[in-house]
Q: What sequence folds into this?
């Protein structure tokens, strides 16, 4: 039965996250962007919402909830509406926990899930992207060579969130050579198992610490391999679904700001919002944000139903990323010269939004 | 709980209408495009019987009842009887996929019926719907547009002058879909310019009423299987019982016309999506099914071809428009105010259908331009979906006023 209505629990979850976004994240978003640092208390408070530990079984110290992609996209939109860098940081543990939940062995789950603490943020992350121009997931260059008891990892990873403080990092690599997604597996590398190189300096996402990693013969024991058995495409579908929801959030932030500004800013004796060229642009933005949100929901719903959502998630992600540029660019435009100065946050959302088309695995549902 | 699962009825309706569109409509689509103004008599009869036997009608009119009835209904049942708007959107997408022109030829309450449902009294709904859902193919037309206005419906110049139990109508209506074949015409007229919007009323004029005349048929860019007529009213006497909403409910008239759109816009959007999909399916069939092109969704741009990228874009746009449309229809089914969402759906679908049908011809090359294929027809058909039931600009105006919380005066 088709429905566009959130359950009561989902509505509560949305409100809680929206409140956190507005009252906590937004208060520090600009200083964080300028300084490149997210205040520790924001990460702590964000973590205490329980979003990355909620689905961890009680036996391993979690809340024992369901892993629901739909719940996750609702959360992601709200948090990204607060601030994208903070969202990615707070939810980084899921980049490892969700794949473990879906493909991990009992031993792996026990070992790593128990390291997650509901009341204290423990860093976990995943490393997928590599530092090559026109990066292509289908031809990962990081290799995992079978060496008896261990696999030996060689290569470089880039844009790895919080790699400097993560207790463990899920590194995606291939055992064999060849193109395609099918042969990709996850390799759990503890802190110190690779060299954390320089911090990335990005156009946006400036508060988020991302790093280049160098894997120079890192050894990963056999039981630390997350065998995906062809499931990488599913993980990618989950990450892309997350990306659609994040996009909706950032776009909504920019749209709402521009809308409020347009009603207040007087030019030629009238609020600029009373001009169709401004009002219609806002209408277009509102319509596209609704469309992006619905695409995230549809894709998440498919995942929860156990359907193959790869296509839906991939085309949705691309659509959302393209549209995000339209939306955030116009939000900036509506502020005129004031959109160009850093006193207002729209230029930050414009820079943050550019990340969606070029990133993979920023978050996962 | 958010859900995208169709009910068994929705699945059945989709499959059934799709097959009907493919087997019955597609084979004759070109013929009635070329032979503009020739009535597809057999198609009308056949389709009428088919839907009647199923107990299903394409009334966009199942839609908005008046508000008292809705709240009463809400109290009695927690859930709506059936999701008629969503079901209608799903089915009409398939039918329009068959041929949008013929779609508008399918008998039933039509736009006139939608207006009756939005603005009529319970007695009027019963009386007129009986005619429109009767055993013979019948059709309800909407006559709002005039030579002097289209978007600005408050500019109605057709007059209604009270004369005892009757009103005397005078004026010219243009672009009346099905104006050549309608059994009932919902004619919008003013009781006096000085009354402004509240003076605008809708009258149901029955076929054969003296003074009601079909003056001429338009020659159009597309949807040529559907006739669009100019209708003239010359001292046309209409009984007061045919004034929609009755004489007392002064405020209903103009608002009623506008409420009609809450129900019809998602349907028109769904038709537009059907056309976009027909063009998409056509090129997909050639490139992917016949010639083995692979669409590698989500692959980086440098590793994919132009056509692959365009096909993915088309699919994404169609999906975006469809989700907005379903949501707008679903809201109406659940008695949620959907003015903004209905306009969003219509605006998006109206844009997407033009983009997709244009691009499909380009992808197909010179052959795409040829009348041997239906691609060129779909692009012509598409254009009106960003025009009737409110132009693309008017939809954006509606959305903009809603999000800005602006009145007509604040945002002109
Ligand atoms: C880096 C930078 C350098 C600059 N250098 C100079 C300089 O050297 N000298 C100088 O004098 N100024 C300078 N400016 C100011 C610049 O010219 C203004 O920012 C610009 O003219 C827009 O005015 P505004 O910012 O007040 O926007 P507003 O006028 O407030 O406009 C806000 C938005 O409303 C839209 N809008 C306004 N009126 C209408 C209308 N009637 N119809 C439709 N849309 C409308 C605008 O297009 C814009 O999108 C500079 C600005 C920047 C950012
Ligand atoms: C095939 C067909 C079937 C139709 N069927 C019916 C029918 O059954 N019944 C019926 O009553 N009508 C019908 N119409 C009429 C249709 O609803 C109108 O054509 C439509 O509403 C636009 O009105 P118009 O043509 O007078 O254009 P106008 O209102 O003159 O508009 C011209 C242009 O100006 C723009 N514009 C107008 N006002 C504004 C504004 N405030 N802000 C920004 N832009 C604006 C419009 O968007 C448009 O681009 C039909 C039309 C066609 C072509």
A:
């Amino acid at each position: 039965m088709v429905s566009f209505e959130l359950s009561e629990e989902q509505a509560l979850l949305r409100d809680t996250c929206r409140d956190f976004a507005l009252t906590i994240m937004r208060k520090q978003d600009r200083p964080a962007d300028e300084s490149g640092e997210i205040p520790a208390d924001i990460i702590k408070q964000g973590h205490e919402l329980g979003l990355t530990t909620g689905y961890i079984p009680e036996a391993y110290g979690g809340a024992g909830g369901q892993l629901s992609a739909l719940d996750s996209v609702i959360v992601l939109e709200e948090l990204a509406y607060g601030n994208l860098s903070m969202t990615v940081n707070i939810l980084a543990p899921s980049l490892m926990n969700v794949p473990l939940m879906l493909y991990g062995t009992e031993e792996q789950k026990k070992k790593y899930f128990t390291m997650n603490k509901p009341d204290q943020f423990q860093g976990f992350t995943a490393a997928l992207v590599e530092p090559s121009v026109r990066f292509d997931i289908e031809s990962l260059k990081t290799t995992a060579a079978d060496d008896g008891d261990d696999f030996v990892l060689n290569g470089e990873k880039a844009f790895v969130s919080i790699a400097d403080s993560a207790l463990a990092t899920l590194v995606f690599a291939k055992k064999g050579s060849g193109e395609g997604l099918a042969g990709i597996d996850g390799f759990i590398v503890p802190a110190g198992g690779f060299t954390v190189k320089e911090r990335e300096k990005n156009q946006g996402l400036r508060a988020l610490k991302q790093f280049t990693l160098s894997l120079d013969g890192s050894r990963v024991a056999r039981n630390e391999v997350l065998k995906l058995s062809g499931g990488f495409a599913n993980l990618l579908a989950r990450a892309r679904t997350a990306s659609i929801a994040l996009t909706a959030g950032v776009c909504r932030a920019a749209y709402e700001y521009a809308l409020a500004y347009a009603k207040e800013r007087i030019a030629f004796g009238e609020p600029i919002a009373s001009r169709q060229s401004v009002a219609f642009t806002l209408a277009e933005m509102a319509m596209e944000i609704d469309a992006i949100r619905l695409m995230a929901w549809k894709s998440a719903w498919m995942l929860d139903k156990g359907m193959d959502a790869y296509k839906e998630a991939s085309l949705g992600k691309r659509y959302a990323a393209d549209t995000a540029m339209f939306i955030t660019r116009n939000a900036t435009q509506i502020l005129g010269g004031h959109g160009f100065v850093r006193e207002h946050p729209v230029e930050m959302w414009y820079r943050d939004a550019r990340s969606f088309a070029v990133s993979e695995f920023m978050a996962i549902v | 709980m958010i859900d995208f699962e169709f009910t068994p009825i929705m699945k059945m309706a989709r499959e059934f209408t799709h097959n009907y569109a493919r087997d019955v409509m597609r084979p004759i689509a070109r013929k009635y495009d070329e032979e503009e103004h020739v009535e597809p008599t057999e198609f009308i009869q056949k389709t009428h019987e088919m839907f009647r036997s199923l107990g299903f009608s394409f009334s966009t009119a199942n839609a908005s009842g008046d508000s008292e009835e809705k709240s009463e209904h809400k109290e009695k049942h927690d859930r709506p009887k059936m999701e008629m708007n969503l079901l209608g959107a799903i089915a009409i997408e398939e039918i329009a996929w068959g041929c949008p022109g013929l779609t508008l030829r399918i008998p039933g309450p039509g736009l006139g019926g939608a207006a009756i449902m939005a603005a009529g009294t319970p007695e009027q709904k019963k009386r007129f719907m009986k005619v429109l859902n009767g055993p013979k193919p019948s059709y309800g037309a909407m006559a709002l547009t005039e030579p002097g206005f289209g978007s600005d419906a408050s500019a109605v110049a057709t007059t209604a002058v009270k004369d005892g139990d009757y009103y005397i109508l005078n004026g010219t209506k243009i672009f009346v879909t099905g104006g050549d074949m309608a059994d009932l015409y919902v004619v919008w007229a003013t009781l006096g310019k000085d009354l402004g919007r509240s003076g605008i009323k809708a009258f149901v004029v029955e076929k054969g009423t003296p003074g009601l005349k079909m003056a001429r048929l338009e020659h159009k860019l597309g949807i040529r299987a559907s006739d669009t007529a100019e209708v003239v009213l010359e001292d046309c006497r209409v009984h007061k019982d045919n004034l929609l909403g009755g004489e007392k409910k002064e405020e209903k008239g103009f608002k009623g016309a506008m409420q009609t759109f809450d129900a019809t816009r998602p349907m028109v959007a769904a038709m537009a999506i059907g056309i976009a999909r027909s063009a998409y399916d056509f090129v997909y069939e050639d490139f992917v099914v016949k010639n083995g092109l692979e669409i590698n969704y989500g692959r980086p741009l440098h590793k994919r071809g132009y056509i692959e990228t365009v096909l993915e874009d088309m699919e994404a746009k169609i999906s975006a428009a469809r989700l907005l449309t379903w949501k707008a229809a679903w809201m109406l089914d659940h008695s949620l105010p959907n003015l903004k969402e209905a306009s969003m759906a219509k605006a998006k679908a109206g844009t997407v259908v033009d983009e997709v049908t244009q691009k499909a011809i380009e992808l197909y090359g010179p052959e795409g331009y040829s009348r041997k294929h239906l691609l060129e027809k779909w692009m012509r058909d598409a254009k009106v979906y960003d025009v009737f039931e409110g132009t693309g600009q008017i939809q954006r105006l509606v959305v903009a006023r809603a999000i800005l919380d602006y009145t007509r005066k604040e945002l002109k």
